[in-house]
């Protein structure tokens, strides 16, 4: 089994990945600055290093004895990236290159990177395959695409194993961003407290919502891969956002009003994945359907609201 560093391991996705790594016998170190992560989300068995991927002391400390890095530290809010592109360049891109340099000096040359379907921008056709053109429509997506290019370079020049996982729309228990900008937690929370649901584009956008446990499993499944490889992680099913709301209403047994927020800069109309490449490589597939995932998510938030 491997010793794995999870950057951003106190965040929503990172904490799930860290716990699953431990459950499957791996040793885990978490590097997190707690800008958006939560200490109560940390896996108890994980070693914690409090620090930033830009920190020239904490980063090497976290890399001691490590076999591989799962890199999830980064800013993720699309509207914020539109307001402040430089912040996303400095934190996500420059921060990742600093991490890569620390890895190179520590002779740790395997990285699994948390990328995003945002790198595709507005797709030319659906479902989206990994060989689709890259043309991000917002600075967040541009930061992910830039990091992907650096990873390809570190594979070519320094012999890194760089596995890139392009997430579609993760959701599930434990999502506690502040402020929360993602659709499903906002929909669920508003419904449970019987307040109007905030909705952009009248809910006509089509998205591929992937349950957090399925997403986390993909990281464990690709740990043994080598070279430079890119995989989508999605359910391969697109659903209109307004239909997600109707499923939530059906689960809870009542409806609440909709607050129409109009358009939003940086959004695309529709995307959903082809994950056939990942299935062929490691046998991964999404197991939790949307209705079951929403039930589990609603049950989680009921305990806090």
Automatic annotation (TrEMBL):
GO terms for molecular function: UDP-glucose 4-epimerase activity. It comes from the Bacteria. The keyword NAD applies. One of its GO terms (biological process) is galactose metabolic process. Pathway: Carbohydrate metabolism; galactose metabolism. It catalyses: UDP-alpha-D-glucose = UDP-alpha-D-galactose. Residues 4-234 form the NAD-dependent epimerase/dehydratase domain. Gene3D superfamilies: NAD(P)-binding Rossmann-like Domain, UDP-galactose 4-epimerase, domain 1. Its EC number is 5.1.3.2. It holds the Pfam family Epimerase. InterPro entries: Epimerase_deHydtase, NAD(P)-bd_dom_sf, UDP_G4E. SUPFAM superfamilies: NAD(P)-binding Rossmann-fold domains (SSF51735). Its cofactor is NAD(+). Transmembrane segments: none annotated. Keywords: Carbohydrate metabolism, Isomerase, NAD. Belongs to the NAD(P)-dependent epimerase/dehydratase family. This is UDP-glucose 4-epimerase.
């Amino acid at each position: 089994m491997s010793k794995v560093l999870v950057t951003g391991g106190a965040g929503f996705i990172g904490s799930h990945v860290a716990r699953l790594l431990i459950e499957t016998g791996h040793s885990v170190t978490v590097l997190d600055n707690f800008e958006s992560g939560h200490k109560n989300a940390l896996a108890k068995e994980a070693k914690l290093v409090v620090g930033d991927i830009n920190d020239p002391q904490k980063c090497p400390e976290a890399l001691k004895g490590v076999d591989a890095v799962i890199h999830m530290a980064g800013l993720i809010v699309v509207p914020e990236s539109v307001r402040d592109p430089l912040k996303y360049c400095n934190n996500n891109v420059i921060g990742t290159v600093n991490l890569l340099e620390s890895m190179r000096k520590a002779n740790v040359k395997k990285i699994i990177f948390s990328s995003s379907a945002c790198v595709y921008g507005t797709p030319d056709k659906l479902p989206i395959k990994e060989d689709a053109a890259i043309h991000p429509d917002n600075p967040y997506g541009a930061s992910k695409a830039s990091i992907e290019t650096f990873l390809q370079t570190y594979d070519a020049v320094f012999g890194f194993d760089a596995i890139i996982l392009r997430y579609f729309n993760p959701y599930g228990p434990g999502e506690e961003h502040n402020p929360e900008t993602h659709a499903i937690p906002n929909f669920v929370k508003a419904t449970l407290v019987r307040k109007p649901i905030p909705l952009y584009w009248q809910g006509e956008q089509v998205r591929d919502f992937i349950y957090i446990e399925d997403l986390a499993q993909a990281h464990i499944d690709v740990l043994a891969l080598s070279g430079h490889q890119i995989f989508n992680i999605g359910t391969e099913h697109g659903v209109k956002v307004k239909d997600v709301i109707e499923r939530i209403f059906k689960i809870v047994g009542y409806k609440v009003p909709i607050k129409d927020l109009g358009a939003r800069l940086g959004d695309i109309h529709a995307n959903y994945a082809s994950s056939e490449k990942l299935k062929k490589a490691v046998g991964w597939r999404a197991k939790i359907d949307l209705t079951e995932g929403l039930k589990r998510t609603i049950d989680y938030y009921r305990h806090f609201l």
